[in-house]
Amino acid sequence: PGWRMEEIAASLPTSGLEFTSEAFIHAAQTPPQVLASISPSSMEGFFLPDTYILPRTTTIDQLLDTIARNFAIHITDEMRAGFANHGLSVYQAVILASIVERESIQDEEMTMIASVFLNRLNIGMTLGSDPTIQYALGFDSVQNTWWKNPLSLPDLKFDSPYNTYIYAGLPPAPISNPSLDALQAVAFPESSPYYYFQARCDKSGFHTFAVTFEEHIANGCE
Question: Residue 198 forms beta bridges with which residues?
């Protein structure tokens, strides 16, 4: 959960499958037919985290088809209805779930974090999510990671359609592969008045939520 496509590709040499990471990245730009009704731009966001037991002779196309079918099976009619209740298509829900996945350290907070983002979307407020900028920046050679942390002030101003500090609404595509929990959190979020959250000062991985910006600032760590 939370990996981007390149991180999945990097793990393939230890999988026993007989194709390269580069070939995988190339093939994943064309989603299997089973996802045609969702119309994703690539497989990013649709590698449903799960255990996949496959023959070593599995081809790239067979692998992508297996994963895509697993995703489709897990998106129930109830979840689709939940997405629709919030004005989201399945693709939009996957995009939002990919952000919720990266923002949530404690899984039990996913439904509340999803609520904050949906509240923001409903009033046209920017999502202001650091992971979307991390995705836009790409691989950081200094930290040797795809998820640079912390971000600098210039990073927050990085001009990209994925920068949800600058551009309102959802980014153009998922930024990671959300877990089923994250997808369900978007379908069935908490009902809350919150528009802000930030990590608690005790480094527990939990967050403090706030309704107003003034409350949000007051919740900051010294």
Answer: 208
Of 46, 60, 71, nearest to 18 by C-alpha is 60
CA gap 77, 106 in Å, rounded: 27
User: From CA 40, how far away is CA 26, in angstroms rounded?
Assistant: 15
Q: Terminus-to-terminus CA distance in the chain, angstroms?
A: 32
Is residue 4 a contact partner of residue 41, using CB atoms and an 8 Å limit?
no
Q: Which two tokens stand for residue 211?
A: 């309704």
- CA-to-CA distance for 63 and 42, rounded, in angstroms? 15
Instruction: Report CA 21 to chain centroid distance, whole Å.
Output: 21
Cα–Cα distances (Å) from 195 to 122, 204, 211, in that order, read 11, 21, 5
pLDDT tens for the chain, residues 1 to 222:
999 999 999 999 888 898 999 999 999 999 999 999 999 999 999 999 999 999 999 999 999 999 999 999 999 999 999 999 999 999 999 999 999 999 999 999 999 999 999 999 999 999 999 999 999 999 999 999 999 999 999 999 999 999 999 999 999 999 999 999 999 999 999 999 999 999 888 888 888 899 988 887 887 786
pTM of the predicted model as reported, rounded to 2 decimal places: 0.95
